[in-house]
Amino acid sequence: MNTPQPSESRARAARRAGEFPPAPEPLAVPVFDSHTHLDITVHEAGVPGGSGPGGAGADDPVQALIDAAAKSGVDRLLQVGVDVASSVWSADLAERNPSVLAAVALHPNEAPRLADLDEALREIEALAAQPRVRGLGETGLDTFRTGDEGRAAQELSFRAHIAIAKRYAKPLIIHDREAHADVLRVLDEEGAPDVVVLHCFSGDAGFAAECVRRGYLLSFAGTVTFASAGHLREAAALTPPGQLLVETDAPYLTPVPYRGRPNASYLIPLTMRALAETTGTDLDALCAAVSANGERAFGPWR
């Protein structure tokens, strides 16, 4: 979860007003959303079609979001937890919905706030054992929102998540905000799991090259469409199709031309088309590659 900075208050107001963008042209070759927060989307924005915050007016707001995504050619979702409660919710949803897999973790900004970090980590590890929990994340480091006083707890939590991911052979999904060098340092010191995903990739081409060299997956969000994000397009251009993923981080980071309005998985086609243009790859071929990357990293949804 990487929330935008300057327009955050306006974006939050738009989300709370339920101003979802219109559905884009669907993808011909289905893909999956490698990182979404259905629970937060319903709570902050509701669902497309007029149901406001909390999903009032929708019989099943979470299913409405899943159905809207499917109509756009986004037929699978990875629902990501950010604390114990949302991780439990994510695991429960994945257990009963064949279109959803779950990732569970303590967000790096959550770790310093916890009175008993060890107990929370034990609860995350118990969830990691569940068969439809297919990732440990989002975990990592964030030096933007957490000051010096909280960074020891962040790093302790990050190292613990790496260990859990390796014990259960699950992908590690990393939140990295202004901490590129430290993320690589900790991964190198601990030894990375077999599958590492850089969620909402935010680095430049140099950092991307280091991640690609290590065999990590780079997941690009709607930020790659922003006019100011030339460095992300450079990073995407050098990422091999076999190491590329796409995500929303919904309800945040809505792609252009709807930046600032609420995001949801049905808008993935906008980001996919931008990635196809940036990488000079046929759209259908890139969708097929992204889909294959997801199945290889997380296993089958059904």
Automatic annotation (TrEMBL):
Question: InterPro entries per the record?
Answer: DNase_TatD-rel_CS, Metal_Hydrolase, TatD-like, TatD/YcfH-like
Decide whether keyword Flavoprotein is in the record: no
- Is Metal-binding among the key words of this record? yes
Q: Where does a divalent metal cation 1 bind?
A: H35, H37, E138, D249
Query: SUPFAM superfamilies, from UniProt?
Result: Metallo-dependent hydrolases (SSF51556)
Q: Which Pfam families match?
A: TatD_DNase
Query: A GO molecular-function term, please?
Result: DNA nuclease activity
Q: Where is this region: Disordered?
A: 1-26
* One GO term describing the cellular component: cytosol
- Residues recorded as binding a divalent metal cation 2, renumbered to this chain, are H175, H199
Identify the keywords attached in UniProt to this record, alphabetized.
Hydrolase, Metal-binding
This one is known as AraC family transcriptional regulator
**Organism for this UniProt entry:** Actinoplanes auranticolor
